[in-house]
Every structure is written in C-alpha cells, then in structure tokens.
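@channel sequence for tomorrow's demo:
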Amino acid sequence: MPDGPDDQARLFVHETGGAGTAASAPPRLPFTRVEAAGVLQTAAASENFRAVGFDATKDLVLGGRRRDYRFVHFATHGYVDADRPQLSSIVLSMVDRAGRARDGFLRAHELYNLELLADLVVLSACETGLGKAVRGEGLIGLTRGFMYAGAPRVAVSLWSVSDRATASLMRRFYEAMLKDGLSPSAALRAAQLAMMKQPGWQHPYHWAPFIVQGDWR
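structure tokens (generated this afternoon):
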C-alpha cells in the first residue's frame, strides 16, 4: 500500500449516526459510536482526529484539515438519489449544540472541490457504492466524487447494511490493514472471512455489502 501524507496510520473519523433532533434528521444508528471507537483503537498511537455527534459537521469536511490524514472514515447514514446522482449524500450533523437546524448532507457534487491526500476513504453507510450510469461519463455517485477529489480507493457498500454487523466488520478491516499490514482489498476479504465464521454473522447480508473500488493494491 502506498505511503500517505506521512508514515503513520493517521485516521480522520466522522461519526454521526444521525445526530440531532431536527425533524429532518434520520434515526440514530446506535453502533456507529462503537464503530468509531473500534476503528480508532487500531491506530491508538497515531495522531488521529475524531469528530462525533454535533462536531461531525459538513463544514469540517469541506475545510482543509482532513488533508493531513491517511484514512478518512465516515460512520453514518447514506442516501442515494438514483435520478439525480449528484445529490446522493452522506449525513453529518443536522443540528448545532443549541438545537438549530443546519445542512448536514454532504452531497456527491460537493466532493469535487475537495483536495484529498488520503490513501483510503471509507463510507460506512448504506448503499454508498451505488449511483447512476451516464453514457459517456460512467457511474456518477459518491465514489466518483471522492476519487475525483484525489482518493485512489474508496470502500463503499452496495446495499443497506446492518449497523451492528458493520461496526464489527470495520474493526476487523482496520486491524487487518494497520496491524497485519494487508492492502485494503485483502484486509476487507480477511475481515469478511472472519465474520463468516462468527455465530450470527454467517449470512452474506452482514459481511458482503462492502467492496473497495479503485486501486486494489
């Protein structure tokens, strides 16, 4: 796996799980907080950044700070707009600490202006790998937006995922990358094989939705 901005496995982790009480806020995902903690624990010695709940804002992502991190991880809701794929989005904090509503939808078309140095972006949410096939353009969606911004590979899902199973899968995924030294694609395969052997997680619904798109190395 190529080196990132530095030799450390620095993580930039966004976790919202639908934070907020605004009418437009999606329901909470109780295991995204567990997922974020498990992912960060695998690289506890690195200079990681964690934005959870109200702090996981759209402005933070669009700002320049995330450029310093080798891995960018989102644990939240995802929405696909099949008719207008440029409006497909991942959901960040929908309200501030005072309860005021704010735009928390990070849309595919907004990703094109980002400048990413990360080796890998992980979109741990439902259906983040889907989009719309446009003649002459290919598949338009979140993956294309992050790759256009500079990410050589993006881990995405192909269907609605289990909140609890995803937390377990992602912890295994990062352990295989950061502790065992596997490439993202090999690490994901190892995590999926491990999940298959666990009681209650054998069904493909729990472990099979995620793939790595882009550079396989």
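heads up for whoever presents: The chain has a mean pLDDT of 88.
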